[in-house]
Amino acid sequence: MSVGLVVRRAVRGATALRGGRTWHPTPYQVFGFLFFLVMTLAYWRVPLCCDAGQHAAVVERLRANLLHPAHPTADLPGAGSAYYSPYAVAEGAFARLTGLTGWALVRLAGPLNLLVLLTGLGCLVRVLTPRPWAPVLALFAVTLLSGAERAGWSGSLGLMALTGNLGYPSTCAIGLTFWAWALTGSRARGAGLVRYVGPSGLRSVAGYAGLGALYGLILLIDPVTAVAAVLGAVAFVAGWQREWRAAVTGRWALAGAVALLVAACWPYFDAFAPMAGDGGRPYAYVGMPGRVWPALVGLPALWARARRARRDPLVLLCALQCLAPAYGWARGQDAYGDILGLTLVAPQLALAVEFAAPRPWSAPRRALGWVTAAVVCAGFLTVHAGAVVPRALDPVGFGQPPRRPTYDWAARYIRPGEAVVADGYDAVRLIPGYGADLAAPVLPDRALDEGERLRRLAAVRAYLDPASTLALRTTVARRYHVRWLLLTRRRRVPEEATVVAWSRETGEVLARVGDSGRTTR
Hints:
It is built from 23 helices and 5 strands. By secondary structure, the chain is mainly alpha-helical. Strands 2-1-3-5-4 form a 5-stranded mixed β-sheet, with helices on one face.
């Protein structure tokens, strides 16, 4: 009778001390960590501007009253405002616990959103291909082939744009969308992330319910990004789901039902109400060719994928997501233009997967590689280099991110809840972030009737008209409880106002008008 012997594998080198294998970081972990450090520093060195004031204002209102916040920028109730998403409420709760300001929370949100974005992108690419360098190439493609203009927009993933919008809720929503697509693709194909969490976990009823909750969360954080997320989910399911038994159909139906339930149960606003829009020709579509043409270099890669598989998910993703911006253009909805950032993802990811293929490459692939390298270099040197190269280290004078003025000098005098009349582009967007109210909000909001907002804007224009009378200005100031004027240097200060401060940087003047008797919150 023979006795079996258990032979233990010899362990040599550094692993002999621990008795196991060492951890080796993947290429994406190395480059992703470096990218995280560089972009965090790039984001923190640029003054916050534009929509950051609106998001800081939301945090300030939630810090003042977490359950019943006021309107983000006006002396009005805030019930129904879509800005009070789970993302914003979490920021507001953290601000109440720590005492941090809205501006500080927008700053701190940047690295956290970037972490969600990087991990989501890595998981999505791993579902598409096991090639280890594909996520690295996807990171470069997404950030360097996202527009040929320095002006960024919410939802853009270009390097220059990320220096301004990294702390926005839309950036977090895009990262969560990448996670949702990765999990959707894994369930539809039964591969990809299965090896990380186990096939039973991915195919369980609870797993589908959790996926639906993730889509519901995206809808609450950013309804525009949610439109792109749902279209992407349809693309991955239509491309990879082969079996349509009753159990499979029921699980996908469960995911959709849970997403709708999560969105419907949110108490701060109606997630299914129509989005506020500007009407007319949307600003987000102006200069669209300059935003999208660098990513078009990935169309040959998409064409190659379409020839290999008629239901390729990236091909379907590109086709479906073109519908949303087209709809927004036809309806005059500026918000749908922000989906352009996610519309470009399909050709960008197709390029990354194509160039991660082992060599030797075919002649068409080599030609596409040279063309892509030329476009990337041209875009980096002309648009994106200034985002990561500080001016002090800049040898050639790259275009730098816009540096907007700050209003700390005015916020020292304006108490939270006091109403301000302002005429500068930056002032009306940034001063609400310090807790002040605007007599006339400049951005549409579900919580404020659009007719009332337009009447307030007309009243402010009449107030600032050089031909206005003292009686008219007094009426407007009393009606909207105006306490302060924040005027550019081209505007004459009314005779009844008292100048209390001015900015050396912009020449703007802060003047106090008569006490309206308003009680600050």
